[in-house]
Specification:
Elements lengths: L7 E6 L10 H9 L2 E5 H5 L8 E5 L4 H13 L3 E6 L8 H11 L8 E5 L4 H9 E2 L5 E5 L7 H13 L3 E5 L9 H10 L7 E6 L7 E6 L12 E5 L5 E5 L2 E6 L8
Helix pairs in contact: 3-4, 6-7
The protein binds S-adenosyl-L-homocysteine.
S-adenosyl-L-homocysteine (SAH) binds next to α5, β9 and β11.
Amino acid sequence: MTSSISGSLTVIGLGPGNAAQVTPEALAAIEAGEDFFGYGPYVDRLNLRDDQRRHASDNREEISRAEAALMLAAKGGRVCVVSGGDAGVFAMAAAVCEAIEAGPAEWREIHFSVVPGITAMLAVAARVGAPLGHDFCAISLSDNLKPWELIEKRLIAAAEAGFVMAFYNPVSKARPHQLSRAFDVLRAHLPGSVTVVFGRAAGRPDERMRIEPLSNAHSDMADMATCIIVGSTETRLIERPGQAPLVYSPRSAGKI
Ligand code: SAH
């Protein structure tokens, strides 16, 4: 069957927060878009023309935002949904897919595409060296969409399997104690000497990188703009005179 809907929905990752880290593909997709949906601060990053429209919303309204964008695309609009970092990493691309799956059959005819972006853990990793140089995983510490017990189970499994871990959504006002709890869980399964990188606002003017051993890691060292990378026992720290240390995870890491 040929598609009867001419509208399109493009989900675009805007990178960690500076113009140089927005890909040319993302810029071209923004240029071609008519309506832009997203969390306010992300929509604010766009330099839109007068003929392009903003639809900013709160960051808790992901599914209703996805549905509003799909409804407009179903009417023939060239619609964009924007996220920070990569749109497929703890962001809008999955919410749009979820809405397509649950929504009316005609939404499946919309031309749907995802433009990738530089995700936070890559921006942070690049600042300190190569902490993601061997096997790693990414875990959101937010329990908005999954129970905290499952997060703890994944932390333990990842620590025992020797993965480097990148934590997204490490804290929020509603969850002040969970990051402390996560560090306590890790301290029970990893040596205190394991390197932890607190990468705040990577790529933005207020960027701050802090490196601590797990034994010193504290929830005060992170906020909502921080991506935390917890090394494995193989992760190495190279001290350098007059420069920040390098953190890297050797490619050959891992023994049975
Ligand atoms: N889609 C985004 C992640 C959204 S979840 C991405 O791919 O990067 C939001 C979390 O991402 C924040 O709580 C923080 O952990 C992380 N984050 C987003 N931008 C960041 C940045 N510039 N520096 C460090 N962490 C960032």
